[in-house]
Design goal:
- It is built from 6 helices and 13 strands.
- By secondary structure, it is α+β, with helices and mostly antiparallel strands.
- The protein has one domain.
- It has a 7-stranded antiparallel sheet with strand order 3-4-5-9-8-7-6, sandwiched between helices. Strands 1-2-10 form a 3-stranded antiparallel sheet. The protein has a 3-stranded antiparallel sheet with strand order 11-12-13.
């Protein structure tokens, strides 16, 4: 089996230590101790927060219950860059994790939080969308993007089906959907689960990082994650004023289909998370995220 892609000697060592199928030689005791010390220090340095969280951009807040914890942009960046091997980039507004899991656990899943100020997304089309037609259109677009990916040296990608059909809550103005994706010849398919919370000037993007086999667990937690996020006064969806505010160039259908950012190519309108052999790869606009796991807790 091909060894997983690693960024840095320590991360490679963690990957080999935690994934027996990938390890070719046993780790020396002192190296194991160094890796374990790094893991313990890393986890001890994370500030797990609950309760009312004011997101850094000032437009929205989270109410995080005891069953979850929030990580600040700084800690989230540590997870993304130091632990998961993501190249340096703009940190998210934070991340959410279930309380009983560390970001380094093999069965962990998390939710990234970002904000897009593209304007007010009208929901007039929300109840008129033919989801079968939308899926067919998205499959066609994915095939075209896949051909471009292959030309640039990336593995092909295929949109298999909805993992969860789009659902829009017109009262709280929250949208969520999930896609089942296949990368290359991988037997294990990828789960791409999205939440959008609409506001006066834009929307929150909350994206799950998880495996397809974790879909039942994610489905059990979607409502809890949805309930955490709300816009602050002055930024709420129902405070939109057409005299002063601007409309986004797309509606609910365009938001789901990822048409907004399609012009940048390489499926930039979608956050695609691939998890295989203890690794998660994030492909978004040509970006790459590799997540290296330690073993599950005993």
């Amino acid at each position: 089996m091909t060894r997983a892609l690693c960024f840095g000697a320590l991360l490679c060592a963690i990957s080999m230590l935690s994934t027996p199928l990938q390890a070719e030689e046993p780790q020396a005791p002192d190296e194991q101790a160094q890796i374990q010390a790094w893991i313990e220090n890393f986890e001890a340095g994370l500030d797990r927060q609950t309760g009312t969280i004011a997101l850094p951009n000032g437009v929205a807040s989270l109410n995080v219950p005891d069953g979850f914890y929030y990580l600040s942009p700084q800690d989230s960046q540590r997870v993304l860059v130091e632990a998961w091997g993501n190249p340096e980039g703009e940190p998210p507004l934070g991340m959410l994790f279930p309380a009983d899991k560390s970001p380094l656990d093999a069965d962990s899943w998390g939710v990234t939080i970002e904000y897009s100020e593209d304007g007010y997304v009208s929901d007039d089309d929300a109840h008129e969308i033919d989801f079968n037609e939308l899926l067919a259109d998205m499959k066609s677009s994915t095939q075209q993007e896949s051909a471009e990916r292959v030309r640039l040296g990336y593995e092909p990608i295929e949109l298999i089906d909805w993992a969860a059909q789009p659902y829009y809550d017109g009262v709280d103005h929250k949208l969520h959907w999930a896609q089942e994706l296949k990368f290359g010849d991988a037997q294990d398919h990828t789960l791409n689960y999205n939440i959008r919370v609409l506001g006066r000037k834009g929307y929150l993007l909350m994206n799950f990082i998880a495996d397809m086999n974790q879909l039942p667990e994610i489905n059990q937690n979607v409502d809890s994650v949805l309930a955490m996020a709300s816009f602050n006064d002055g930024y709420r969806y129902d405070e939109f004023d057409p005299e002063y505010d601007t409309y986004a160039a797309y509606g609910i259908g365009g938001l789901v289909a990822g048409k907004v950012l399609a012009k940048t190519g390489l499926l930039a309108g979608l956050l695609l998370f691939l998890k295989k052999f203890g690794v998660i790869i994030l492909a978004a606009g040509g970006g790459l995220l590799v997540k290296l796991f330690k073993g599950s807790k005993a």
